[in-house]
Amino acid sequence: MEDKKKEGRYERIYKQLESILVKTDDPLARMASICAVLHHKMDHFFWTGFYMLKSGKLVVGPYQGPVACQELEKDKGVCWAALNNAAPVVLADVHVFPGHIACDSRSKSEITLPLFNKKGEIVAIFDVDSDRVRAFNQVDQLALTSTLQLIYKAF
Ligand code: SME
């Protein structure tokens, strides 16, 4: 998708989410709604979801798309890379990332972002897979970073 079109769509999604998320401050409910809206409005999203950091493990949380791995092997793959670096990872082609965990062989590119709570601790990793190569870039990273900030926002 062209960057301008992508930006416009992310802006509209952000506004829609603001009106949905105001109804509760429950983070899990907000995560679930964010997955549903993004997944159904973004053509390049094939799998959209959260891996929750629980007792040092990454365990699947709210998601939309094909059935995913329940738990991700520690320190392996793209989600763990985002967690260990406390920074987003944008991967143009999953096949060039050593240790990439393929929950579904149709995934071709990926973006992962840490979710920080109000104390600045990482509580989950947000992960989006695309069935197209080079689906994600800085536009996605910026927009998704803002979108994730809605989870702990006081409206
Ligand atoms: N590819 C991820 C695993 C999660 S699935 O893509 C849903 C990784 O390498 O961490």
Report what the structure shows.
There is one protein chain. The protein is α+β, with helices and mostly antiparallel strands and 155 residues long. It has one domain: GAF domain (Beta-Lactamase). The protein is 35% helix and 25% strand. The protein has 4 helices and 6 strands. It has a 6-stranded antiparallel sheet with strand order 3-2-1-6-5-4, with helices on both faces. Strand 5 (109-116) and strand 6 (122-130) form a beta hairpin. Helix 1 (3-21) packs antiparallel against helix 2 (27-41) and helix 1 (3-21) runs parallel beside helix 4 (138-148). The longest helix has 19 residues, at 3-21. The radius of gyration is 14 Å and the shape is globular. The N and C termini lie far apart (31 Å). The model has no long low-confidence stretch (mean pLDDT 97). Residues 47, 68-69, 72, 77-79, 100-101, 103, 107, 110, 127, 129 line the site of methionine sulfoxide (SME).
